[in-house]
Amino acid sequence: MHIEAPKKTVNKSDKEVFDFLIDIKNFEKLMPENISKFEVLSEDKFLFALKGMPEIVLKLKEQHPNNKIILGAASDKLPFTLTADINSIAATETEVTLSFEGEFNAMMAMMIKGPITKFIDTLSSNLSVI
Protein backbone atom coordinates (compact mmCIF):
# COMPACT_ATOMS: atom_id res chain seq x y z
CA MET A 1 0.00 0.00 0.00
CA HIS A 2 1.37 3.39 -1.00
CA ILE A 3 0.05 6.69 0.35
CA GLU A 4 1.57 10.04 -0.51
CA ALA A 5 0.74 13.40 1.04
CA PRO A 6 0.56 16.47 -1.20
CA LYS A 7 3.91 18.27 -1.56
CA LYS A 8 4.44 20.89 1.12
CA THR A 9 6.58 23.99 0.61
CA VAL A 10 8.52 25.03 3.71
CA ASN A 11 10.23 28.43 3.98
CA LYS A 12 13.52 26.96 5.20
CA SER A 13 16.64 25.61 3.51
CA ASP A 14 16.87 21.90 2.74
CA LYS A 15 19.53 21.58 5.45
CA GLU A 16 17.24 23.18 8.08
CA VAL A 17 14.38 20.86 7.12
CA PHE A 18 16.67 17.80 7.16
CA ASP A 19 18.18 18.77 10.54
CA PHE A 20 14.69 19.25 12.00
CA LEU A 21 13.46 15.86 10.79
CA ILE A 22 16.47 13.77 11.85
CA ASP A 23 16.00 15.03 15.41
CA ILE A 24 13.21 12.58 16.18
CA LYS A 25 11.92 14.47 19.22
CA ASN A 26 10.71 17.11 16.73
CA PHE A 27 8.13 14.66 15.39
CA GLU A 28 6.03 15.44 18.47
CA LYS A 29 5.51 18.94 16.99
CA LEU A 30 4.19 17.38 13.76
CA MET A 31 1.76 14.96 15.38
CA PRO A 32 -2.03 15.38 15.09
CA GLU A 33 -4.04 16.86 17.96
CA ASN A 34 -5.52 13.45 18.80
CA ILE A 35 -2.16 12.03 19.91
CA SER A 36 -2.50 10.20 23.20
CA LYS A 37 1.16 9.31 23.73
CA PHE A 38 4.60 10.38 22.46
CA GLU A 39 7.82 9.06 23.94
CA VAL A 40 11.42 9.27 22.72
CA LEU A 41 12.95 5.82 23.29
CA SER A 42 16.46 6.57 21.98
CA GLU A 43 18.14 9.08 19.69
CA ASP A 44 16.80 7.20 16.63
CA LYS A 45 13.52 5.74 17.91
CA PHE A 46 10.20 7.03 19.23
CA LEU A 47 6.83 5.66 20.23
CA PHE A 48 3.50 7.32 19.57
CA ALA A 49 -0.17 6.48 19.84
CA LEU A 50 -3.24 8.15 18.46
CA LYS A 51 -6.54 7.84 20.30
CA GLY A 52 -8.19 4.55 19.35
CA MET A 53 -5.07 3.16 17.65
CA PRO A 54 -2.30 0.86 18.93
CA GLU A 55 1.12 2.24 19.91
CA ILE A 56 3.59 2.44 17.03
CA VAL A 57 7.37 2.57 17.35
CA LEU A 58 9.23 4.31 14.53
CA LYS A 59 12.97 4.03 14.03
CA LEU A 60 15.24 6.15 11.85
CA LYS A 61 16.32 3.64 9.17
CA GLU A 62 18.11 5.76 6.56
CA GLN A 63 19.22 9.33 6.10
CA HIS A 64 20.61 10.98 2.99
CA PRO A 65 21.79 14.45 4.09
CA ASN A 66 19.51 17.29 3.01
CA ASN A 67 17.65 14.94 0.64
CA LYS A 68 15.78 12.03 2.23
CA ILE A 69 14.87 10.51 5.58
CA ILE A 70 13.32 7.07 5.99
CA LEU A 71 11.62 6.01 9.21
CA GLY A 72 10.44 2.43 9.59
CA ALA A 73 8.37 0.39 11.97
CA ALA A 74 10.54 -1.08 14.71
CA SER A 75 8.33 -4.18 14.76
CA ASP A 76 8.12 -6.73 11.95
CA LYS A 77 4.43 -7.35 12.75
CA LEU A 78 3.36 -4.30 10.71
CA PRO A 79 6.21 -3.61 8.28
CA PHE A 80 6.05 -0.11 6.82
CA THR A 81 8.16 2.95 6.10
CA LEU A 82 7.53 6.67 6.29
CA THR A 83 9.73 8.61 3.87
CA ALA A 84 10.39 12.35 3.70
CA ASP A 85 11.74 13.45 0.33
CA ILE A 86 13.37 16.89 0.64
CA ASN A 87 13.95 19.00 -2.48
CA SER A 88 15.51 22.44 -2.44
CA ILE A 89 13.62 24.98 -4.56
CA ALA A 90 15.60 28.06 -3.50
CA ALA A 91 18.06 29.02 -0.73
CA THR A 92 15.23 29.41 1.79
CA GLU A 93 12.49 27.34 0.17
CA THR A 94 12.17 23.57 0.26
CA GLU A 95 9.58 21.13 -1.00
CA VAL A 96 8.85 18.12 1.22
CA THR A 97 6.86 15.05 0.21
CA LEU A 98 5.87 12.51 2.86
CA SER A 99 5.00 9.00 1.73
CA PHE A 100 3.93 5.81 3.49
CA GLU A 101 4.72 2.35 2.14
CA GLY A 102 3.53 -0.86 3.76
CA GLU A 103 2.77 -4.51 3.06
CA PHE A 104 -0.67 -5.42 4.42
CA ASN A 105 -3.34 -7.97 3.60
CA ALA A 106 -6.46 -6.61 1.89
CA MET A 107 -8.56 -6.52 5.08
CA MET A 108 -5.89 -4.67 7.09
CA ALA A 109 -5.22 -2.25 4.22
CA MET A 110 -8.92 -1.42 4.00
CA MET A 111 -9.10 -0.73 7.75
CA ILE A 112 -6.01 1.47 8.01
CA LYS A 113 -5.97 3.35 4.70
CA GLY A 114 -8.25 6.19 5.92
CA PRO A 115 -6.54 6.80 9.28
CA ILE A 116 -3.03 6.52 7.78
CA THR A 117 -3.90 8.93 4.95
CA LYS A 118 -5.25 11.45 7.45
CA PHE A 119 -2.16 10.97 9.68
CA ILE A 120 0.31 11.52 6.79
CA ASP A 121 -1.64 14.58 5.60
CA THR A 122 -1.54 16.05 9.12
CA LEU A 123 2.23 15.47 9.46
CA SER A 124 2.70 17.18 6.10
CA SER A 125 0.47 20.15 7.01
CA ASN A 126 2.30 20.60 10.31
CA LEU A 127 5.68 20.92 8.56
CA SER A 128 5.03 24.67 8.64
CA VAL A 129 6.21 24.63 12.31
CA ILE A 130 9.82 24.06 11.20
General description of the model:
The structure is a single chain. With 130 residues, the chain is of the alpha+beta class. Strands 1, 2, 3, 4, 5, 6, 7 and 8 form an 8-stranded antiparallel sheet that branches. The chain has one domain: START domain (Alpha-D-Glucose-1,6-Bisphosphate, Chain A, domain 4). It is globular and about 45 Å long. This is Orotate phosphoribosyltransferase. It comes from Cellulophaga geojensis KL-A. InterPro entries: START-like_dom_sf.
Summarize the structure.
With 130 residues, the chain is an alpha+beta fold. It has a single domain (2-129), classed as START domain (Alpha-D-Glucose-1,6-Bisphosphate, Chain A, domain 4, 2-Layer Sandwich). It is built from three helices and eight strands, in the order ββααββββββα.
In terms of DSSP E residues, the strand content is 35-45%
Distance N to C terminus: 28 Å
Number of helices: 3
Overall form: globular
Q: In total, how many domains does the architecture comprise?
A: 1
| Residue-averaged pLDDT | 94
> For this structure, what is the CATH class?
Alpha Beta
The CATH topology is what? Alpha-D-Glucose-1,6-Bisphosphate, Chain A, domain 4
Low-confidence stretches: none
Structural class: alpha+beta
Radius of gyration: 14 Å
